[in-house]
Design brief:
This protein is α+β, with helices and mostly antiparallel strands. The protein contains two helices and eight strands. The chain has a single domain, classed as Phosphatidylethanolamine-binding Protein. The chain has a five-stranded antiparallel beta sheet, with no helix packed on it.
Length: 166
């Protein structure tokens, strides 16, 4: 499987910031043009348990955009203090067409077993890939670091300028 975020190929196991993985990636895999596929992206390390970030079924060949989205892509957003999360992509070859309805946003926290039961399909693993991510302070933007020593110097200067030291 090949993952591309912003046209950059991601090697499985790479660490990405939530900002780098914010947009839907391009996913490529070896496909049989006569078969249908299922794509699942999930976070098994989520604080709520397994969390589904993307579910697409009935994908013809390698054309994810032509599949049926049960859950739209949602980029990583690990909460503060939750550590490093794995974002795993699974592509399955389907034995036939899957009849399933969209999954409500409120049901994103769902085990893979529960998802497989919901899909009620014969799935055969085709390929996998993953990246890791963790919470970033300030949303990944760099901020100017405050230097404590300069604050201390400013305080001392203010005291010297005053009329009296009390």
């Amino acid at each position: 499987m090949k993952l591309l975020y912003n046209n950059t190929e991601i090697i499985s196991g790479t660490h990405l910031t939530p900002l780098q993985a914010h947009s839907e990636p391009k996913v490529e895999y070896t496909a049989n043009p006569n078969k249908l596929y299922t794509l699942i992206m999930h976070d098994p390390d989520a604080v709520v348990g397994n969390y589904l970030h993307w579910v697409v079924i009935n994908i013809p060949d390698n054309a994810i955009a032509n599949g049926q989205q049960l859950l739209n892509y949602k980029g990583p957003a690990p909460p503060p203090g939750s550590g490093i999360h794995r974002y795993i992509f699974l592509v399955f070859e389907q034995a036939g067409r899957i009849n399933a309805q969209s999954i409500p946003e409120s049901k994103r926290a769902m085990s893979l077993d529960a998802l497989y039961s919901l899909l009620n399909a014969d799935l055969h693993l085709n390929s996998t890939a993953y990246f890791t991510s963790e919470h970033e302070k300030n949303g990944g933007r760099k901020r100017k670091r405050n230097d404590k020593s300069s604050k201390t110097k400013k305080r001392k200067v203010r005291r010297k300028k005053g009329t009296r030291n009390r």
